[in-house]
Design goal:
Blueprint (H helix, E strand, L loop, with lengths): L2 H6 L7 H8 L1 H15 L2 E6 L11 H6 L2 E7 L13 E5 L13 E7 L8 H14 E9 L5 E2 L4 E2 L6 H8 L13 H9 L6 H7 L4 E7 L2 E9 L1 H15 L1
Parallel strand pairs: 1-2, 1-4, 2-3, 4-5
Antiparallel strand pairs: 5-9, 6-7, 8-9
Helix pairs in contact: 6-7
């Protein structure tokens, strides 16, 4: 396995990326446990996710906590789910989940997706829908303030202007991405990644606690978490105030 693959191949259990996911999985495991203890099962909507991500847990975890996971993606080909009855999928836009009722799922989950949904308006829509459909939620994203851009595995690349990033991508290969030749495709690639910082995540998810995954003392990624008991308290207070 090449060095770049070791860093970026999240589907490989040998990759550093998989190791980071597994290291922070205790937050997600705690949410699954709390939901199971409250409801006796855990209905998860994984927005933009793939079945291979859930290999961070032994399959026994999904069985023990009676977890069922619905994957929502704009493309519907997810062959990995075919032999697992706990997985299902639909084709939809994570910024518009109007086919689901408020709080329809025990847990809304998203890992490294919100930074790919588009401009700030779509980011806000994505956050609003995640908060709406899940009683609890877990939203992870790379931290803009961390000096290494995670997709290109290149220091300071994400801090450069768009035009400069496009020029670099047309001259050299960065990370797992091939060198670009078409400027239209290059700009689409550059604009498809919009990393968020702590201030943005706090504004998008004000009812969450913000966990920081650190490496060498720096926050590599940010995780917005709303616990199931926090949601229950919010609903109780809303009903009490309405009475």
């Amino acid at each position: 396995m090449s060095l770049i693959a070791t860093l970026t191949d999240y589907n490989s259990t040998k990759s550093l990326g998989h190791w980071f996911r597994k290291r922070r999985s205790h937050h997600l495991l705690s949410l699954l446990s709390d939901c199971y203890n409250t409801f006796g099962q855990v209905d998860v909507i994984d927005i933009g996710g793939r079945p291979s991500y859930w290999n961070i847990f032994p399959q026994s975890v999904l069985v023990d906590f009676n977890v069922s996971i619905l994957f929502v993606n704009r493309q519907s080909e997810l062959p990995e789910h075919e032999n697992n009855p706990r997985f299902s999928q639909i084709q939809a836009d994570g910024c518009d989940l109007s086919m689901f009722q408020n709080q329809e799922f025990h847990l809304a989950h998203s890992n490294s997706v919100v930074e790919h949904v588009g401009d700030w308006e779509r980011v806000k829509m994505f956050a609003a829908e995640t908060k709406r459909v899940g009683q609890a939620y877990y939203v992870q994203t790379p931290n803009f303030s961390f000096p290494i851009e995670p997709h290109y595995v290149t220091p300071f690349f994400h801090w450069l202007p768009e035009q400069t990033r496009a020029q670099i991508l047309q001259k050299i290969q960065l990370g797992p991405y091939p060198k670009e030749t078409d400027i239209i495709k290059t700009m689409e690639t550059v604009q498809s990644i919009n990393l968020l910082n702590t201030t943005m995540m706090t504004a998008l998810f004000p009812d969450a606690r913000l966990e920081k995954e650190r490496i060498l003392g720096m926050a590599k990624s940010l995780i917005a978490i709303r616990d199931i008991n926090v949601h229950s308290s919010h609903v109780h207070n809303t009903l009490k105030n309405a009475a």
